[in-house]
Design a protein that fits this description.
231 residues; two-stranded antiparallel ribbon; mainly alpha; 2 strands
């Protein structure tokens, strides 16, 4: 059955699913981290940042208003942001929350507009935005979302479009940033955002996510994977 709107429980579940998938794939992200500094911690920073957001959302089980859930996600993201990638994600969540406002739920075309606002907020928060990074992929996905909305896609169709567009934009990042091209890798922060969208889509499709039993060494409490119930 097509789902043509987003409410609080659905938003909560897809964000937690995205966060869990980034946590599961963080070593892959760390391994390609060469920009802005080759310190191999982008995946860890994104996992920690998104886990702080997911932890706050797990406390909201039963809260139905989308605006309330999005506001909690934004506040937790700001407080829990680690590294450059975490700060960019925090501003993305903040922009999304501001665009949603106090609405209890939004139809897909309106949510697409909110995604565009979130992408712009992440870009504008940077003193010197660099193309070929996570902000480039965020913008590409929000642009693709507008086309999906015009085609009348439901939540699953929109999520599939976002992920496909993000992967295409990710593959082009070495063309835009010399340090990536020389290292023969894509941007790590952008890869983390793609993985976040991948996890969200897995939840929407009802696919299982891994039990994050290994998370203790990161200082992240282990939780059972989110299910697709109520999606």
């Amino acid at each position: 059955m097509p789902i043509n709107y987003l409410d609080g429980p659905r938003f909560r579940r897809v964000v937690i699913g995205g966060a869990d998938w980034v946590r599961h794939t963080r070593e892959q992200i760390n391994a390609i981290n060469v920009f802005p500094v080759a310190d191999g911690d982008t995946g860890t920073n994104m996992a920690l940042s998104l886990s702080a957001t997911a932890a706050a959302l797990r406390e909201l089980n039963g809260t139905r208003a989308l605006g309330s859930v999005a506001r909690v996600a934004a506040e937790a993201s700001i407080l829990g942001a680690k590294g450059n990638s975490g700060l960019i994600l925090a501003h993305w969540f903040l922009g999304l929350s501001q665009a949603i406002g106090d609405r209890p739920r939004v139809p897909m075309p309106d949510f697409v507009d909110c995604l565009g606002h979130a992408s712009s907020a992440a870009h504008d928060a940077l003193e010197t935005p660099v193309e070929g990074t996570i902000i480039t992929v965020m913008r590409a996905t929000s642009d693709a979302a507008r086309q999906a909305a015009a085609a009348g896609h439901d939540l699953a169709g929109l999520a599939e479009t976002l992920l496909a567009a993000a992967r295409r934009a990710l593959a082009r990042t070495p063309e835009q940033l010399a340090v990536l091209r020389e290292a023969h890798v894509v941007d790590a922060g952008a890869q983390g955002y793609v993985n976040f969208l991948d996890g969200a889509l897995r939840v929407i499709r009802g696919e299982p996510l891994p039990q994050a039993a290994e998370s203790g060494r990161l200082g992240i409490p282990a939780h059972p994977p989110v299910s697709a119930e109520e999606i």
